[in-house]
Amino acid sequence: MGVMALDELRDLLIRHARPDLGTPIEDVVIFKAERPRPPAPTTYGKVLAVVAQGTKRFALGDRLYEYGAGQYLVASVDLPVTAHFARADAERPGLGVGLTLHPEAIAEVLLQAAPGALPELGDDAPPGLAVSTAPAELLDAVIRLLRLLDRPSDIAVLAPLVKREILWRLITGEQGAIVRQFGLPGSSLSHVARAVRWIRDHYAQPFGVEDVARLAGMSVSAFHRNFQAATAMSPIQFQKQIRLQQARLQLAAAPGDVAGVSRRVGYSSPSQFSREYRRQFGVPPSQDARRLTPARDRDGSAGISA
C-alpha cells in the first residue's frame, strides 16, 4: 500500500501542479520544485503538508526539521520558518500537497466524536508544528481528495466529505493533540495563537510581554511557557523573526532604502538591524538587497519578479 500509494500521489501531483500552486479544490495547493533552492524565509501557518517526493528542510527558532516522501507536517500557528527543498531535480522534482486547516472545521469534527473516543488533553500547549510518518489511512484520504481533480464535477459534493475524513485521521493520529487543541477555542494553543496574530499584526511596535499575556488570557508565567512550547521562541524572539522577514521582503522592493526599511520594521538602531539581519540571513542587508534584485532591474530595465 505504501509504495503504490506514493506512486499514485506523485502521479497526481505531477499531473496537476501549476506555477501558481493553486488547484480547483478550495484550500488545497500543490508544490513542485525542480531543483534545490537556498533556504528562504516563509510562514508555515495552519496547514497539513504531505511530501510525496524529495526532502524538505526547515528551521524554526533553534530547532531543525526534515521531512520526506510519505511524511507529513502539521502546523497550527502562523510560524516564521526558513525552509527549502534540499533534494530535488528535473528528473525527480520535490513534490507535496498542502491543505489549509480551519479551527471551526476541526471543532465541528470533534463535536461528532463519540464520548470517550479521544484521550484527555493536557493543559499546556503542544508544539505548534510537528512532523510524522503518514499512516496508510491518511495517505489514502489525501489521494482520494486529489483524484477529484480528474473529475471536476465531483469536487463540490465530495471534497468537503474527504476533507472531514482527513481531519479525523489527523485528530486520531500521532499529532492529534496539536490538531485538537487548535480546534478548541479555550485551549492553551488557541490562546497562544491569539498572541501570535497580535504580534504579527503589530510587529513594528514595541510591546510589554505582560500586555500580550493579558491579551492572550494567560498569566505571564503560563504565557511564557506555552508560547515557547508552541513556537520554539520567546515572544521577543518571535517578533524579531517577523521583523527580519518583513525587512527582507521590503528590501527586495526597495534595495536602496536600507535605513528606511530598518525604521519601518521597528528598529531604532541601524547598526542593530544590520547585525541581526546578517546573523539571520548570512550577509548584511545592503548586500542581500543586491542579491535579491535581478541585475537588469538595478539598471531600471525590468521589474521585480517573484
TrEMBL record:
Protein name as it appears in the record: AraC family transcriptional regulator N-terminal domain-containing protein
Lyase as UniProt keyword: no
Source organism, top-level taxon: Bacteria
Annotated organism of origin: Nonomuraea spiralis
Residues annotated as domain HTH araC/xylS-type: 193-291
Alphabetical list of Gene3D superfamilies matching this protein: Homeodomain-like (1.10.10.60)
Keyword Ubl conjugation annotated: no
Stretches the record annotates as Disordered: 268-306
Cited InterPro entries: Homeodomain-like_sf, HTH_AraC, HTH_AraC-typ_CS, Tscrpt_reg_AraC-type_HTH, Tscrpt_reg_HTH_AraC_N
Compositional bias ranges of the Basic and acidic residues kind: 288-300
